[in-house]
Amino acid sequence: MQFVPTILCGGVGSRLWPISRQHHPKPFIRLSDGQSLLQKAMLRGAKLDGAIEVLTVSNRELLFKLEDEYREVNHAQIDTSFILEPFGKNTAAAIACAALHIADVHGPATILLILPADHLISNQAAFEQATKQAIHLANDNRLVTFGIKPDCPQTAYGYIEASKNNVLRFIEKPSREKAQAYFESGKFLWNSGMFCFKASTMITALREHCPDILSATQRCIEQSPLVKGRSFSQLALDAASFDLIRDESIDFAVMEKASNVAVVPCDIGWSDIGSWDAFSELLDGDENGNRIDGHAITHHSANCYIKSDSRIVGAVGLNDLIIVDTPDALLVADKNRSQDVKHIFSALKLQNHDVHKNHTTVHRPWGTYTILQESDNFKIKRIEVKPGASLSLQMHHHRSEHWIVVSGMARVVNGSEEIFVRVNESTYIPAGHQHRLENPGLLNLVMIEVQSGQYLGEDDIVRFSDVYGRA
Amino acid sequence: MQFVPTILCGGVGSRLWPISRQHHPKPFIRLSDGQSLLQKAMLRGAKLDGAIEVLTVSNRELLFKLEDEYREVNHAQIDTSFILEPFGKNTAAAIACAALHIADVHGPATILLILPADHLISNQAAFEQATKQAIHLANDNRLVTFGIKPDCPQTAYGYIEASKNNVLRFIEKPSREKAQAYFESGKFLWNSGMFCFKASTMITALREHCPDILSATQRCIEQSPLVKGRSFSQLALDAASFDLIRDESIDFAVMEKASNVAVVPCDIGWSDIGSWDAFSELLDGDENGNRIDGHAITHHSANCYIKSDSRIVGAVGLNDLIIVDTPDALLVADKNRSQDVKHIFSALKLQNHDVHKNHTTVHRPWGTYTILQESDNFKIKRIEVKPGASLSLQMHHHRSEHWIVVSGMARVVNGSEEIFVRVNESTYIPAGHQHRLENPGLLNLVMIEVQSGQYLGEDDIVRFSDVYGRA
Fold first, then answer.
1. For residues B322 and B319, what is the distance between their CA atoms, to the nearest angstrom?
2. Which CATH number belongs to the domain containing residue A31 in this structure?
């Protein structure tokens, strides 16, 4: 049976700060095998028999990063479509948009399989079995949830009381005592956030249980331009009308109220990697139970998780600690409080400090830049441009730029000149000069940029033309 | 009475890693008032009535750093002399060298006041009182120690059992029980490592208790060139003959054996800042007892010390932890194990890892360089040259260098050319070209250097001439 795996890629994952940031959220975290959670979710859906395309609902700012991620792993070249949100609006809006869009494009009888982008499922075979059952139930006009068999009395998830495929009731995150009782009874399942239904079934349910969300979503989609290519489509949601959709979870808006809900109990090696504690369990421990990703020296330390890309970590007399180091921010946390990392993220957001938002390496449609050092009157960046990519034709009022190519080859427009700059060559862009940087080659271009001037803000830029539509 | 404050600046202070490193040892650590421990020790001696010069015994590699440190604070322009060791050799050798040298230069009756470079003394008035008493006793041909009145039952120091100014016995670092008994009895003092004696008294004691050390030291000084200027002298100890001096502490070699030892009991606000725990106590705590030097966000954390120059630290659920962050290494340690930090240092030394030796910012006679990024085929440095300073005339076989001036002004010899490079100007030094960089100005020169080549080791350098004698 044909269906559309639909990846929900929203939310930040603030409990996984400092790796997770607003512009580099949790689904983009790479695991030790080199794949991101997002890539795993996409492949998980794409591999299923009958998947006709992969639809992704995410923030519009993340589009080029999503495309980069998919390009890396989409060897089977399944079609990829996107619904682009101007800002986050909970799961009811995202799922309503997806259902209406799929009904438009593929017909109302088309089945959607909703997969959050930031979960891990280790047993693909069991997952495939479960989706087959879910699609079967969805075809019978049921709204299908996936219920995970608990392996501990978790208090961080909602529960479903089930009898075979029938949902008896949905339960909010329980107290520790209740969680223990649910776990022991064997009749309760974790509510995983994965769903399966026909587009028409969901639209009917929305009409019945939250008609305001359905009608606001319909109006929003009417206002939103749809771009269609040979192997992709992009629906860019209109901000003003999107803002009018009520902020609600699909569980509360529909699932808990509908009578045609079903559940597929499954044991698929599921984890939502909700904290650094859960994340650390993906790694094997040493003889003292320390799990180390990077270079660390431990002394009288046990059961710690240490993640550091470049810095050396010395650990003395530590127990049950989490240490996560990044170029501009460091987390040290008690494992038993790893859920509380979100409070650090919130505090940084409140201070409007950039470390809640960006890494020192910033992704752009054309590649990346990394700030190596900043000072009052100069800034040094490492710029990496993808093969064939091009920055906008631009000009700065207050800063000059020295460019030194250290790998690959650059084509540079500098005022009225156009030149090639090779490895170990440099060029100089005076303030006020129109310029453009391109990588005409087949390898990545790596360039060191030294900016000099009295004002070095990213907003001192005039764009004349831009292949990514930013002019 | 005239005397020579003699600063012993040896040892690494490995318990204060990662701030303390082999080439940037503990005395160079700066406190929150901007002064280093070394500068404080030097001023402590220089301020005393009767100080005729300050003599420093230290490693020869540290000379230019010592001179820089002293220049910064030596407003009274007291003469500074140096005995330069080719490597560390414990306190007997250092003190024997100092005594013989001072006897030669100022006469055998001259008094030396031995001050370790890495201690803190908060009560200068009490210290002055104590030194007056010590000098008086030294003038009576006594070998004087300074005994600190204990304020807790420390196990990290040796003790002196005293009766007035008389030493009854020296005691090695005691067990916890014995330390408690000593502390309670009120008759015991900490052995501080500060001493006072006439040069001739020490020479006589060395002849009696360790004649081999005296004669080996005499032979070493005979082999060692003495350079004298108007306001300084430098005795550069000959490595081969210095190596023949027995490695011994002055306590074991002389003090514990001599009968003419005296002690000055004192309460001078002394600390040897022997660990991060002690170091942290220099800072005031917040309402949860957290002492924070840098930008940290704490959540359910208490009694922690967090030091971070540039990175943001998030602390969740931590108690009694020490977190010290530097550009290339991070320490996280239980306060109760802060003595054990030395094991991390030793492990890194064993691995021959550069983080036990250097910081990313390396001091040179002409200024500093900081490695901003390293890769296989390029390296980026921030180079800061002091006014009037000059690097050697040099050449590299395997790397080219791009230089961009971001502050100040450079004079550059590049092959047969000599040019000035101003702010926001650049120049290029091809591999194989003789070149020299100078700062002819009155302000610091700051330059970004991008090295490009297949081999980027610091040893790819041919020096043709060097004002610091390194050619």
1. 9
2. 3.90.550.10
Domain that holds residue B282: 276-348
Instruction: Express each pLDDT in A194-226 by its tens digit.
Output: 999 999 999 999 999 999 999 999 999 999 999
Domain containing residue B449: CATH number: 2.60.120.10
In angstroms, the CA A8 to CA A42 distance is 10
pLDDT digits (tens, 9 = 90+) for B265-303: 999 999 999 999 999 999 999 999 999 999 999 999 999
Chain A residue numbers with beta carbons less than 8 Å from the beta carbon of B315 are 332-333
Query: What backbone phi and psi angles, to 5 degrees, belong to A339?
Result: -65, -25
Mean pLDDT, rounded, for B328-347: 96
Q: How far apart are CA B96 and CA B213, in angstroms?
A: 8
Which of A316, A327, A334 has its CB closest to that of B337?
A316
- CA dist B199 and A374 (Å) reads 53
Domain assignment of residue A148, yes or no = yes
Is-contact B89 B247, C-beta < 8 A?
A: yes
Residues A327, A368, single domain; the answer is: no
Tell me the pLDDT band of B458, cut-offs 50, 70 and 90. confident
User: CA of B95, closest CA in chain A: separation in Å?
Assistant: 35
- The continuous run of DSSP H or E covering A179 comes out as helix A176-185
CB contact under 8 A, A17 and B314: yes
Mean per-residue pLDDT, B329-346: 96
Distance, CA of A219 to CA of A223 (rounded, Å): 6
Residues B15 and B42 both lie in one domain: yes
Closest CA to B373 of A12, A180, A448, A80: A448
Chain A: residue whose CA lies nearest to B429: A424
Using a CB cutoff of 8 Å and minimum separation of 24, what contacts does A60-68 make? Answer: A60/A84, A60/A85, A60/A86, A60/A236, A60/A237, A61/A23, A62/A9, A62/A23, A62/A25, A63/A234, A64/A363, A64/A364, A64/A365, A64/A468, A65/A24, A65/A28, A65/A363, A66/A9, A66/A38, A68/A363
Q: Name chain A contacts of B343, Cβ cutoff 8 Å.
A: 299, 316
Q: Which of A323, A349, A375 is the last residue of a domain?
A: A349
- For residues B286 and B259, membership in a common domain is answered with no
Cβ–Cβ gap B426/A424 under 8 Å: no
Instruction: Go through B124-154 and write b for each residue having 16 or more CB atoms within 10 A of its CB, e for each that does not.
Output: eeebeebbebbbbbbbeebbbbbbbebeebb
Taking contacts as CB-CB distances below 8 angstroms, the residues of chain A near B452 are 404, 406, 423-424
Tokens standing for residue A173:
């995150």
**Whole-angstrom Cα distance, residue A441 to residue A411?**
9
Radius of gyration of chain A (CA): 24
Domain end position, chosen among B348, B371, B389: B348
How many domains does chain A fold into? 3
Give the gyration radius of chain B's Cα atoms.
24
A412 and A456 share a domain? yes
Asked, for residue B471, whether it belongs to a domain, the answer is no
**List of chain A residues whose C-beta atoms are within 8 Å of the C-beta of residue B453:** 424
Are A213 and A333 within one domain? Answer: no
Instruction: Report CA-CA distances (Å) from B315 to A301, A314, A317, A380, B305.
Output: 18, 17, 17, 30, 11
Closest CA to B357 of B14, B32, B10: B14
Q: Cα distance from B69 to chain A (closest Cα, Å)?
A: 25
Query: Are B306 and B429 contained in the same domain?
Result: no
Question: Tens of pLDDT along A301-333?
Answer: 999 999 998 999 999 999 999 999 999 999 999
Work out the average pLDDT over A166-193: 93
Looking at the fold, whether A249 and A341 belong to one and the same domain comes out as no
Please check whether residue A251 lies inside any domain of the structure. Answer: yes
Task: With respect to residue A276, please indicate whether it lies within any of the assigned structural domains.
Answer: no
Q: Which residues from chain A sit within 8 angstroms of residue B344, using beta carbons? A: 297, 299, 314, 316
Same domain for A54 and A190: yes
State the complex-level ipTM. 0.90
